[in-house]
Write a structure and sequence with these properties.
204 residues, mainly alpha, Rna Polymerase Sigma Factor, Chain: A, 2 domains, 0% strand, elongated
Length: 204
């Protein structure tokens, strides 16, 4: 990941110090978010740099004590929408027809697996890297909703502010993103044989 350098002319030392103190602890979060958005390392670094430059120029508008992570991610989202998307990879698209019909618990019943075993069989045993890789396959809007909620832990209200969308849209994107993620993880678990030991014991 490239190191941030201040844009343009040198700012007053106090401003530069304050910006660094607020932003530096969140660079890893910003880079992860940029990588999830672009899915390319160079594009992620460019998006991060553009985000930091805009954040630096607008730092006077930041209210100390408020959520700096949400403020920075809101800027990154705006940068992405307002021009970066034109040079980045085209966002993925996906039909939602299959997503809406999928239910892990319905699939569990069909497979003959005890419902209480679902989390242990599909999530705990599947591995964090596999889950993150599955998140990366989601369409961009759903991907960001899932990342912000389930990876970074933002509230629905914070997500609505970051993404600049109504709360109802946040709810819809997160629901659909989780459904599609659920299907992807379920299919991976079946192919990897992770469900083999989770079937109900049947007595004659």
């Amino acid at each position: 990941m490239s190191t941030y350098t201040s844009p343009g002319s040198s700012p007053a030392p106090a401003d530069g110090d304050a910006f660094t103190a607020e932003v530096a602890p969140h660079l890893h979060l910003l880079y992860r978010a940029a990588l999830r958005l672009t899915q390319e390392e160079q594009a992620a670094e460019d998006l991060l740099q553009d985000t930091l430059e805009r954040a630096f120029l607008n730092f006077g508008r930041f209210e100390p004590g408020t959520n700096i992570r949400a403020w920075l991610l809101r800027i990154m989202t705006n940068v992405r929408i307002s021009g970066f998307r034109r040079v980045a990879r085209r966002p993925q698209t996906s039909s939602l027809d299959a997503v809406e019909d999928f239910s892990m618990y319905r699939a569990v019943r069909l497979e003959g697996i005890a419902p209480l075993d679902v989390e242990a069989a599909v999530l705990n045993r599947i591995g964090e890297q596999t889950v993150l890789a599955a998140i990366d396959t989601l369409p961009e809007d759903f991907r960001m909703a899932v990342v912000l909620a389930d990876v970074e832990g933002f509230s629905y209200k914070e997500m609505a502010s970051i993404l600049d969308i109504p709360m109802g849209t946040v709810t819809s994107r997160l629901y659909r993103g989780r459904k599609q993620l659920q299907r992807t993880l379920w299919e991976h678990a079946r192919e990897a044989g992770i469900l083999a030991g989770a079937h109900k014991s049947r007595t004659a």
